[in-house]
């Protein structure tokens, strides 16, 4: 009994160490341990910004910010006087009544001054100037017809100067070849006297239409204009059609007509076209916002490479 009692008395119970209490001294500042639950907000009192998503952390190196969106190029139109105009959708080809098997051209045009129209089959532009080169002049000679000043004029190719489609392959008639030769080239040219009264040679402005032929299901031949080039004051311009500009320039229509307002805000008049698709569908304000958002055309969803601002209804103001 005594042995067991002595063993109980000699057994020591180990207690966990107690945390050391900070010592305080009268008249001195006391140091305290940090709290187990720190203040969730910084000294400013506002919560910290949320962390970046994981995909952004992997996308941009640490310590760097995402790049700012690049602005698309903006251009403004320049007014150029167009002294002669051929309505490309109205070019027709019909068989010559006096020479069966040969076909003649006809179309409508407007001119602010006298001039001439030259028709060249299988022709191309001379490099660096507005002259035309006939590559098959031995078979089809160029035809030149003079005209006077006036609107809504009609051009008809003289009888006996038409083209025989059966003498050429289909690819020759329907495509531009590798050397830049088009099956049909039409040049409308006007000569203008200089306003300064000098005796120098007059200014020559011209419109060149490069076209190919086609054939309908009913056997009728047609003309499709591929490109139109304008020469004005010695400078060359390639004409591009702007889709939707017709409604914006329609002066006689009501202001509430559908098609004149911006397709985004639906209140301002459209005056900006998207490049390269050439859809004129926005106002200037919405076009500015588009640069920092989708950067896609609201009509066809193609990427936006540039914006073209067009001044419309200039004649109606005043």
How would you portray this structure in words?
Pfam families: RNF157-like_N, zf-C3HC4_3. Pathway: Protein modification; protein ubiquitination. Residues 262-301 form the RING-type domain. InterPro entries: LOG2-like_mRING_C3HC5 (IPR045195), MGRN1/RNF157-like (IPR045194), MGRN1/RNF157-like_N (IPR058981), Znf_RING (IPR001841), Znf_RING/FYVE/PHD (IPR013083). Residues 21-36 have a biased composition (Low complexity). With 318 residues, the chain is mainly β. Among the domains are: 84-239; 245-309, Zinc/RING finger domain, C3HC4 (zinc finger) (Herpes Virus-1, 2-Layer Sandwich), CATH 3.30.40.10. The protein has helices spanning 2-10, 54-59, 170-174, 245-248, 284-290; strands at 73-76, 84-86, 92-95, 103-111, 115-125, 132-134, 143-147, 150-156, 182-192, 203-215, 221-232, 235-239, 272-275, 279-282, 306-309. Strands 5, 6, 7, 9, 10, 11 and 12 form a seven-stranded antiparallel beta sheet that branches. Strands 1-15-13-14 form a four-stranded mixed beta sheet. Strands 2, 3, 4 and 8 form a four-stranded antiparallel beta sheet that branches.
Short summary:
By secondary structure, the protein is mostly beta strands.
Topology as a string of helices (H) and strands (E)? HHEEEEEEEEHEEEEHEEHE
> Helix count, per DSSP?
5
Structural class: mainly beta
Low-confidence stretches: 1-11, 22-37, 52-58, 250-258, 314-318
Portion in strands? 25-35%
Round the Cα radius of gyration to an integer and report it.
40 Å
Largest sheet report: 7 strands, antiparallel
- Counting DSSP E segments of at least 2 residues, the number of strands comes to 15
Q: Globular, elongated, flat, extended or rod-shaped: what is the shape?
A: globular
Mean pLDDT: 77
Family: Belongs to the RING-type zinc finger family. LOG2 subfamily.
Domain RING-type: 262-301
Keywords: Lipoprotein, Metal-binding, Myristate, Transferase, Ubl conjugation pathway, Zinc, Zinc-finger
EC number: 2.3.2.27
